[in-house]
Task: structure prediction
Amino acid sequence: MRDEPKAVVLLSGGLDSTTCLAIAKARGFQPLALTFRYGQRHDVEIEAARRVARAFGVRRHVVAALDGALFGGSALTDPDIDVPKGRSADQMGADIPVTYVPARNTVFLAMALAMAEANDARDIFIGVNALDYSGYPDCRPEYIEAFQRMADLATAGAVRDGRAVTIHAPLIAMSKAEIVAEGNRLGVDWSLTSTCYDPDRDGAACGRCDACRLRLDGFAAAGAVDPIAYAQG
Amino acid sequence: MRDEPKAVVLLSGGLDSTTCLAIAKARGFQPLALTFRYGQRHDVEIEAARRVARAFGVRRHVVAALDGALFGGSALTDPDIDVPKGRSADQMGADIPVTYVPARNTVFLAMALAMAEANDARDIFIGVNALDYSGYPDCRPEYIEAFQRMADLATAGAVRDGRAVTIHAPLIAMSKAEIVAEGNRLGVDWSLTSTCYDPDRDGAACGRCDACRLRLDGFAAAGAVDPIAYAQG
Result:
């Protein structure tokens, strides 16, 4: 184990980031996990991230608090904005939804870059995907490529050695069904994960927000069964 | 005042960021200030940032806490690493110093981007400068340009309107002497500012770390007097 290269994995505890962690391990990396608490209403996902990290034997898992005041104006952080429910796939793709959190992946990747450099990791994994991406600008391949070019100029390691940190987005071109199939192949225990934007007090998923619908459609298309609890009705 | 466009200004409370704030105001922006607490040993600078923001009539000043665990390995955050003292200008430029904080400007700019988008600001000011920059990779013009290109793809506003947020680095090609002269021209009260990496318990600057030496050399070259207190001896 001691000789495996370290990689920082952004881990929300959902289906995508958990599969991403499984891929990082399968590729021979020793994962360091990084999870954020940013005032999201679905903070049950932080507990999911802890369960997932434990299950994968992650030895260093940082849960970093971010000042929610910076991220105002999203349904994920503002209790006065309703999470949209029951939207069709066409509606999801048509515009940037109210669940968009300002500059979220830029902040997450920037923090991952700091953690990577401070821990001598030369790789970062992020579970964005551009197909079933729910309309977020910072899930597109051209965005990830631009972040990589910026990172190549940003760090002490980059100045010393050229490319210092490589951003991996292994799910970027995969459908949710392909992600479920890949996770199954790698033995992911989906019961540990949490995806819903608006779970109830017992942690049961609503089944109707964009995130739940993409997840359920993915399991259905993969011919797999989602083992987590969904609220009735 | 109501019609002035808002700009997020990264404000450490030092000479450069204070001059940057003065420039943003002089250019007709209503500044929102953003300061970070990241376990830096010179947290007296946060009080300086508060004084400076008050003096400039800043109506929104966010002091955001960042998890210091992400930024290990710098003399500015690790009490076991000594801040270098008494280095010459040649020594400062020769290598990336131990005071380098991993990916700091990337994290700061990412957070500023989130704050800008959440507050309908289309401009960000950062007081980096490439001449007297003490050897940091993320103070170079090519780094700022790469961040701009990434930001152009990162946000909802960018997707809707093309360039959504413009990064201004007005000090990037200025010497410290030119920064002091510009600050004097704009009426900056230097006694409010704090620059030292390693101030004593009374907040007096050491006069010998890289930051103090660049500051003192700047005042000397500008033919100006620095009014802050320096430790004796």
Summary: The beta strands of chain B are 6-10, 30-37, 60-65, 123-125, 166-168. Chain B has one domain: 6-221. Confidence is low (pLDDT under 50) at residues 93-98 of chain B. Residues 88 and 210 of chain B are 8 Å apart (CA to CA).
